Amino acid sequence: MSSLSEVRIVRPYATESEWLHEEGWTVAKKSVYLIGIAPIPEGTAVRCELELASGQRLLVAEGVVVKYSTDSGDRPPGLVVRYRRLSSASSQFINRVLSARDASELSSPSSADNPVPSSATNNSIVEVEPSSAVQPSRLSPALERLRGRSPAVALSQQERDEALHRLRDRRP
User: Is the pTM of this model over 0.85?
Assistant: First the structure.
């Protein structure tokens, strides 16, 4: 396994709710938009940590760089990383962010028109430790086809046996 580039970002908020209000738009189900990170080549494997100024870790993930976005009118420059592995706490954090976003979109029909706050641009501490041996990930064609699909759900032995029994009964 190749080594990972380390990306650590400290955002200038004291609480998760402050961060959510200002930058909750940066987290998606399958990826994260890392504000203020310098370009890293697409396909590079990275380990990223997103922290608050208070020291609270919001997200710890391993992933692959998907693209770099330059500064545009509605968002600051940053790096898009697709998750490969998440800690359980990070997975729970992502679910909280998505739930909060869904709730706010339901209560505010014009939320899509709200611009990204100006505080999202340059108020972070960014540390990038590039690895000398980072190689773009190379997946077999079979794994490439599976990229982006939801992970399988772990079943109990009884559920697994029942599912296999139903599948066997469907055979011609």
Answer: no
